[in-house]
Amino acid sequence: MRSFQFTRSLWRPRWHKVTADLWGNKVRSFLVISSIAVGLFAVGLITSMYVLNGEDMEAGYSSVNPASIQVFTSLYEEDVLTHIRHVEGVRQVQGEYIFSLRVRRSGGEWKPIDIHAIPSIEQMDINRVHLEKGVWPPRDKEIVVDSYKLPELPVGVGGLLELELPSSRTRSLRLVGAINDQTIGSTGGGGFFLAPAQGYITLETLDWLELPNNQMNVIFVTVDRSPNDYAYLREVGNRVSDAVEQSGVTVYSTAIRAANDHPNRVYVDAISAVLFVLGFLVMFLSGFLITNTLSALLNQQVHQIGVMKTIGGRRGQIMGIYMVQIFIFGLLAFSIAMPLSSQVSYSLLGYFSQAVNTQQQGFRVVPVSVVLQLVVALIVPQVAAFIPILHGTRISAVEAMSGYSQSNPPNPKGWINQRLHDVRGLSRPLLLSLRNTFRRRGRLFLTLFTLTLGGAIFIGTFNVERSLSSYIERIGRYFMADVNLTFKQYYRIEEIESAIKEIPGVRQVEGWTAASGELMLPDGSVGETTRLLAPPSQSELVSPILLEGRWLGPADADSNVITVNERFRETYPNLKPGDIIQVKIAGRERDLQVVGFFRLAGKSSGYLAYGTYEYLSRVIHQPNRANTFRVRSEQPRLNLQEQQAMGRQIETHLEALGYQLADVEAGESLTATTADGLNILTIFLLIMALLIAVVGSIGLMGTMSLNVMERTREIGILRAIGASDRAVMELVLVEGALIGLMSWVFGVLLAFPISSLMSNAINLALFGAAADFTFTPTGVFLWLGVVSVLSVLASVGPARNATRLTIREVLAYE
Amino acid sequence: MPDSDVLISLHDVTKAYKTPAGDFWALKGVDIEVAPGEFVGILGKSGAGKTTLVNLLTGVDHCTGGEIEVDGVAVHRLKENQAAKWRARNLGVIFQSFQLMPSLSLLDNVTLPMDFAGLYRPIRSAERALELLRAVEIDEHAFKLPSDISGGQQQRVAIARALANDPPIIVADEPTGRLDSSTAETIFAIFETLVQQGKTIFMVSHDPGFVRRYSRVIWLADGLVTDEPQFDVK
Ligand SMILES: Nc1ncnc2c1ncn2[C@@H]1O[C@H](COP(=O)(O)OP(=O)(O)O)[C@@H](O)[C@H]1O
Ligand SMILES: [Mg+2]
């Protein structure tokens, strides 16, 4: 043992001091390492998430070989596809028959399901799916569904799924698998969240569903080059449409989409935007955290530095000791933070990729994130420690050992001390602890700034979350009807209205019509497809969020005016209220005058326009008839359950009368589905707020504890002159609480710019416009709680420790 | 040219501290000369300026006026780093409160100055440190931490540390001030042995106990050397 220790001593003792300090004061080492590690963790987590998030979305989506062009047509047969294959620019072609049936859901009600009947399903190469459970492909009389909607179905994989055929007969298919189809929502329309459940079957199964098995109505096309170039895609798309029409098949609509443009890209982008801002802030936060921790650590070493200088240590030699020590701290912190942040970011993203329907790629470590963490672990601490080390090794040995500073004598007439004296009625010990707080202004500033920044980010996250939530509530006013009915065919409005009004409690029934139209571009080519919704011109069931121009009113009854959503700006960047656009509806081009812009759920909403019922019903040759109806109850503000109950009552009543319903939807649930994507973002923000609170807490506990540790000697002196343990404890607590409170106040102030920075980032991604500012007290008061508990906890431990030491021990300390 | 009989010479040394109330003159013009092999005791009451004097002599602080020469080196002109380098080889310093590195073993505490000075190879340093600890009879605790031993024992280690690079001069600031009288006696005896071995010792103290045992006593009061004894000599 002895000889081992002796050999160990052969190592230069100055390096020995490095390891001895590390082991000798384990609590302190733990505090320092964990403070650095949480800072690194935050940086690693956010940079990894930022990179992985983008990669998963792009790589995941392009790996399914998504269709670049989708053409919805009248029924056609196989030979048309052969024709399309020879169109210039086309690489692959695949036909499908996509139609809507109704499926019985867990609640017993019938809901629409889109069925994809795919020829030679085992060779399907466009819009590839990813098997999650069970088997793929389905065989005859079997069906596979998308896993996102699986929980809504009454049976799991292996069960029998009940479908309602157009003839109202029901047929069962065995549910054999669940897959992930990233192309859901790619046709525009309502996007992913509004899309119904999807089922996948073979063409042969169509027989069993009483449908012809040799016809299709959708053509998927991939292109030979530049799959991300929208201009090229549009060019090829137009050629394909022409070719289809030459074959005598009618084109209903086309949609083009770049191979890297996941239907939910907006949400992924929004998450990235928040992560970017957060990442930037967190870099600062951890920089301060590390600086704070290390200057606390080095302050405790100033005395020893003085001794070492007196016994002949030169500045370079002494700086070397601390630089190596800090290098080791950084390395240890890195070795904890790096794997942890990789793992946590991957798991968190796993959750989000499910929610926004992207396919998470395999676990991987992000090189950029590792390098950043390494830089922060090795360089930031050196930079942070440089000033204290320089200071510690520069002050003369006398100052270091006596604690006197010759260059900066304590100034009892200082501004703060004067102010403190002005406050009457402060007790002596309280005055002392207040003066303590302000004594080391540099350190106070560092601690305060770190706490303030952490608090501001935390509060800001809540504000952003609140502004999204209130936006979601606002969206509800597009869906003010209690029940929305969709029929399988058009009925006379008067007839349905009087049928529904037989039910007691119904106040109002509106018949709406809807159509889809292709946007005709100024150059004569065909653009995206838009959905047109047409409530009666005097309808009060829509309260829009107007961005520009005006909404529709009774005066517009018979005119060709529309209002359009934010998506239209992508196709028409210079569109103004009053401009005319050409839209092809029911096979004919129409001039429509845009009178206003409204905002819905952001860029992912798809193209949506509102026109008047009076005008559109004539255009589609269904005057006085409608296939969708909106019903309002006599009671205001029904909740979801009440709306659903009312919906069931209406459904039973209408079906008894022989009307063919396709879908019955409660107003609240329509709002909810529309806002689904935004909700995911709010959950994401809450998780980030939580993480920042945890990171901030651990880091700040560390630095504050170090601050109190530094006071051990002072506490000893206080006790020597008769302060009771309680008095000492009070002193430390008051100081901790004071710092906490001050940082809280500053944090609330700093939260304003930080909130608007984050809100704007997320809103630019979602809506392409800056955000309205929202401030919620939730974050403010939660942080007050966090920071109070934190500062007290961080102070009590070391203070307790200090009061336990005997006075002799304390005075001999260091 | 240094006088061969003078190892340490302080000439008209003054020191002013800046305080909020203005300059405070801790030393007001001190002249002292010490020959090799002397055991000089600088005695005075608390606040007389003894520690200030030690700090100037060892080069850790700069005088406001005057000259300090040690073995031909103008200490008052040395820069921080030069002073540290010079101290490492020429001067052993001992403090009232021991000032050992708390996280290092006693052995490492003694090897540390050798490490800084770079005079010995690591293996030789360790051997030498053990010899020095043996000389102050503390070698059996060589691998303990300072906090594991008593104050008297700590001061022995501090003496061993001061001797690490075999400097000709030892400067001590109240080395017995924190010790009980019997422990103080043994520590003082060690210094006497060192003088016999040829070291020159410059010790400041306000302890009247050992006045007769210095080879020469210099009284210090209010920053000036005085002929008047500052306390009763037993
Ligand atoms: N850094 C300093 N700043 C101001 N005054 C000081 C400083 N150091 C010492 N003094 C003052 O100088 C005088 C001499 O101090 P010191 O040399 O420590 O005396 P001694 O060691 O004899 O007790 C004392 O009055 C002391 O208060
Ligand atoms: Mg003194």
Describe the structure.
The complex is a heterodimer of chains A (814) and B (234). Chain A is of the alpha+beta class and 814 residues long. Among the domains of chain A are: 1-62 and 283-409, no CATH class; 66-258, no CATH class; 483-637, no CATH class. With 234 residues, chain B is of the alpha/beta class. Chain B has a single domain (37-63, 80-226), classed as P-loop containing nucleotide triphosphate hydrolases (Rossmann fold, 3-Layer(aba) Sandwich). Helices cover 31% and strands 26% of the residues of chain B. Chain B has 6 helices and 10 strands, in the order E-E-E-H-E-E-H-E-H-H-H-E-H-E-E-E. Chain B has helices spanning 50-57, 80-90, 106-117, 122-135, 151-162, 181-196; strands at residues 8-19, 22-34, 39-43, 65-70, 73-74, 91-94, 169-173, 200-205, 216-221, 224-226. In chain B, helix 4 (122-135) packs across helix 5. The longest helix of chain B is centred in the C-terminal third of the chain and has 16 residues, at 181-196. Chain B starts with 7 loop residues before the first strand and ends in an 8-residue tail after the last strand. The model of chain B has no long low-confidence stretch (mean pLDDT 90). Classes of the chains: A alpha+beta (814), B alpha/beta (234). The interface between A and B is large, with 41 and 46 residues. Bound molecules: adenosine-5'-diphosphate and magnesium ion. Adenosine-5'-diphosphate binds next to strand 1, strand 2 and helix 1 of chain B.
